[in-house]
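Thread: "does anyone have the structure for this chain?"

Original post by V.I.:
We have the sequence but no experimental structure in hand. Need at least a predicted one for the grant figures.
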Amino acid sequence: MHLQESGEMYLETIYILSKKGKGVRAVDVGEYMGFSKPSVSRAMGILRNGGFVELDKDGYLVLTEEGERVASGTYARHEFFTSFFESIGVSPEVAEADACKIEHDISDETFEAMKRFQAKLKGEES
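Reply from O.Q.:
Generated one for you, tokens below.
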């Protein structure tokens, strides 16, 4: 199943919230993203049906292995681009917003090439 950008954003949000050490409920996702309960409920249904999210015995959202793979990849891209943009003088607010746009559209090939290029530049600076 191919996820749309919104699906990746939901998974990334669950990933971020779960890293804070507490269980994640749909209401937490809605508050974090600023979305209504019906919107989040619909999205969670789609993500559960797609095999990306499950509910545990206490009703908390848990990423499946595939959900974790997608979410952690999206988050890594977000962190990379935010940091990169800030390093070239973009304000944190704009860097964050632009990273959020790019993280969903860039190919794996291009992203990996950018990471290698950045690592090479850092190696040459030392």
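V.I.: this helps a lot. The first strand starts at residue 53 and ends at 55.
O.Q.: and The radius of gyration is 16 Å.
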